[in-house]
Specification:
Number of helices: 3
CATH topology: Pdz3 Domain
Radius of gyration: 12 Å
CATH architecture: Roll
Strand content: 25-35%
Largest sheet: 5 strands, antiparallel
Helix content: 10-25%
Number of domains: 1
Number of strands: 5
Structural class: alpha+beta
């Protein structure tokens, strides 16, 4: 039996890099630039270390399929994070 790992996406904000790349609510992010993501905190830390406008390669899992995505990071915090 394979142990599940990764970060589960919530609904990406419209117009965000994730939404523009076709990432959907419920997608499980399994790697960033080839580095495995074990939990959501790993993903946040990996992305926070990267400069704005960096191209990032993501591997996600949806409906039994591995999906490769490429996103370009935005230049600021997401609106949801700014409200906290």
């Amino acid at each position: 039996m394979v142990e599940p790992y990764g970060a589960i996406f919530e609904q990406p904000d419209p117009g965000s890099p994730a939404a523009n790349a076709g990432i959907q609510a419920g997608d499980v992010l399994t790697s960033v630039n080839g580095t495995h993501v074990e939990k959501a905190a790993d993903f946040a830390g990996m992305i926070a270390e990267l400069a704005p406008e960096t191209i990032v390669h993501l591997q996600t899992y949806r409906d039994g399929q591995v999906i490769e995505r490429q996103i370009t990071l935005g230049s600021g915090k997401c609106p949801r994070a700014q409200q906290r």
